[in-house]
Design goal:
The protein is α/β, with parallel strands linked by helices. The chain has 7 helices and 12 strands. It is globular, with a radius of gyration of 20 Å. Helix 5 crosses helix 6. The protein binds cytidine-5'-triphosphate and the ligand C[C@](O)(CO)[C@H](O)COP(=O)(O)O. The site of the ligand C[C@](O)(CO)[C@H](O)COP(=O)(O)O has 9 residues, from loops.
């Protein structure tokens, strides 16, 4: 008699974690508390960002990277804002640059995590659909995924003039081929860890995580971003964020 084949062992479930760098000062926003701790609609920007990521069904753990002198304050803040207990939230100390902070967040991930979403605390209004789309693209096999939008402005490449004088234009890249990149950026954990080990440790910075992965020679793909995933960088961004949040709250009230 032919033996009945045993069922194939199902693949181990892969955990998806989010790392939220929130250790920046927010110098471009002007004087005040660290940017992530300032409020938007009466709630700290960081709390909005954490809520946005834990709303994604697949995200089981969020690592918040807090200002090094503000870990206890951030832990307290998150504890008082009634976040769901079904999702684990860790708080670790950040570093001097965004890159350092992301690396410190990665170091806090448990072994079973193999998909990582890195999301700026400074993008508190990212819709859950954008988070889900990035996670789904990584799960579908892409090693690195970034949400991005086409540009409305024409872009010039210049020779920077730090003194503020006129800057000679050296080129006009074809706008249709350019994208403005947002977060969360999603990665296979091993790919992101290698990028941080090999690229960042050489002092070869990049302004986003995907930039480091590109330098490894690994393909990065773009999925549609969202207008409301903009980064709060300057005071006017905060005005826009307040308006977007007020509109959301008004429509939720109906
Ligand atoms: N040492 C740093 C610097 C930045 N960030 C985080 O990286 C994200 C994107 O950075 P950005 O918007 O540039 O924030 P800041 O560095 O705070 O802004 P600024 O350059 O105006 O000081 C933010 O969520 C910020 O908290 C971080 O975790 N650690
Ligand atoms: C990661 C990022 O938000 C993608 O647009 C951006 O590069 C962060 O840049 P910043 O220099 O920290 O503002």
């Amino acid at each position: 008699m032919t033996p009945t084949p045993l069922p194939a062992t199902p693949p181990a479930p892969r955990a998806v974690a989010a790392v939220i760098p929130a250790a920046g000062r927010g110098v471009r926003l002007g004087p005040g508390a660290p940017k992530a701790l300032r409020t938007l609609g009466g709630i700290p920007i960081l709390v909005h960002a954490v809520r946005a990521l834990i709303r994604a069904r697949e995200v089981s753990l969020v690592v918040v990277v807090a200002p090094a002198d503000g870990v206890a304050e951030v832990r307290g803040l998150l504890d008082t804002h009634g976040l769901p207990e079904s999702k684990q939230i860790k708080v670790v100390a950040g570093g001097d640059t965004r890159q350092d902070s992301v690396r410190l967040g990665l170091a806090a991930l448990p072994d079973d995590v193999d998909v990582v979403l890195v999301h700026d605390a400074a993008r508190p209004l990212v819709p859950v659909e954008t988070v889900d789309a990035v996670a789904a693209a990584v799960r579908a096999g892409a090693p690195a995924v970034v949400p991005a939008l086409p540009l409305a402005d024409t872009v010039k490449e210049v020779v920077p003039e730090p003194g503020g004088g006129p800057e000679p234009v050296v080129g006009t890249p074809e706008r249709a081929r350019l994208r403005a990149v947002q977060t969360p950026q999603g990665f296979r954990r091993d790919v992101l860890a290698e990028a941080h080990e090999k690229i960042a440790s050489n002092g070869d910075g990049a302004t986003d995580d995907a930039g480091m992965v590109e330098r490894l020679g690994v393909e990065v793909v773009v999925v549609p971003g969202h207008e409301e995933a903009f980064k709060i960088t300057r005071p006017l961004d905060l005005v826009l964020a307040e308006a977007v949040l007020a509109r959301r709250r008004a429509s939720d009230a109906f």
